[in-house]
UniProtKB/TrEMBL annotation:
<keyword id="KW-0732">Signal</keyword>
<dbReference type="InterPro" id="IPR051010">
    <property type="entry name" value="BCAA_transport"/>
</dbReference>
<comment type="similarity">
    <text>Belongs to the leucine-binding protein family.</text>
</comment>
<feature type="signal peptide">
    <location>
        <begin position="1"/>
        <end position="34"/>
    </location>
</feature>
<dbReference type="InterPro" id="IPR028081">
    <property type="entry name" value="Leu-bd"/>
</dbReference>
<feature type="region of interest" description="Disordered">
    <location>
        <begin position="35"/>
        <end position="60"/>
    </location>
</feature>
<feature type="domain" description="Leucine-binding protein">
    <location>
        <begin position="61"/>
        <end position="393"/>
    </location>
</feature>
<dbReference type="InterPro" id="IPR028082">
    <property type="entry name" value="Peripla_BP_I"/>
</dbReference>
<dbReference type="Pfam" id="PF13458">
    <property type="entry name" value="Peripla_BP_6"/>
</dbReference>
<protein>
    <submittedName>
        <fullName>Amino acid/amide ABC transporter substrate-binding protein, HAAT family (TC 3.A.1.4.-)</fullName>
    </submittedName>
</protein>
Amino acid sequence: MSQMFGSTRRESVKRMRLGLLLVTSALVMGTACGSTDDSADAGSAEAPSSAFPDNPATGTPVRIGVINPEGGPAISMPDNRRAAEAAAEYANAHLGGIGGHPIELEICAAKEDPASNQDCANQMVEKGVAAVVVPSSGHGAAMVPIITGAGIPYMTPSGTTPAELTSPSAYALNSGFPGSLAAMANYAAEQGYQKVAAFVIDTGAVIASTQALGDSTFGAAGVELKIAPVTPGTPDATPQVSAGLADGVDVVAVIGDATMCTSVLRSMMTLGADQAKMIIQPCLDPSVIDAVGDSLDGATAFLGADIDSDEPEAVLYRSVMERYAPDADINGFTFTGYQAMLGLIRAAENLEGEPTAATIDDAIKSAVDVPMPAADGITFTCDGTAMPGMPAVCANQGIIAIVEGGKATDPKVGQ
């Protein structure tokens, strides 16, 4: 597996086009909601005391904005916000905040529509925040021009719009779904698979964009890609799965929300299908594992974070959440709030002078090989060179893991 993110992937990434962002945007909207099952059975290790030094922040606060999807008719992700709050509390108590100053959060709940997100962006400018963290959103285009236009840095774990991935002072910590798709293609090639059936959630332009860009990922890797659309909310995808598995498919990729993952995987069980599986993070939601049992064991997961292992970053994530947000569910996309907030804090560690929008922005641009929160072994550098054509992306690495007992095990990192 050590070569799975090798030169083939780098060449595929170079050929990616921004049209793939349509896929990413729709997937964010489709995969945002997950189970709220208790997550106490994650890894049992606890972070050492050295991870919690006695270094409280003092002095005048630095205001950091958080725009999070909450209270909307379709999407509400309060645990993302709780994770961002937990990371800020952790930094205030143990990391000296930002530049020695305590972090004071300005929270805006967006309903995940352009008007609401734009209003939140305007509020951040009016309140004079020094940076804005956005754990997850499909409406970056409505926020980035306002926020960065005011000279305020904008940080998100994975951008979903061209504005987030190309604008000065916008920072996307990782390559998100575009990177995962390229990694899947090259992993399939390295395993000798010749044909992949991708069960993809049929939302917005996802299907058309995935098909149009197939040559940039699977085609470039010499693997045939067969796309099988699945309508959101489909309770029984057996007809779609049966059609997708025809013609000698070697491996399946499941790309959608937790509900779609459950539907496709249960249909495979019904059909007695035993093809290898490639999945993304929502398929590890507790609701999916409860529904499909051990049928996911052996699947290959392409992830934006490692929250289950006993690696130091995963352990720190769980420990911080247990200490500062004990009632939050740490599964699903909760890590995005923690990853974005702590990523900002770590990137700004060596800022010069008082923590203002300008000095924080300069610190992010100049920070090199910053450890990615909740992703052991990955570092990020936001100097515009990580991903050709996407200067706001700070890292092109990803995590690949094998599913065992409903958890991502043996995580590997590469580029």
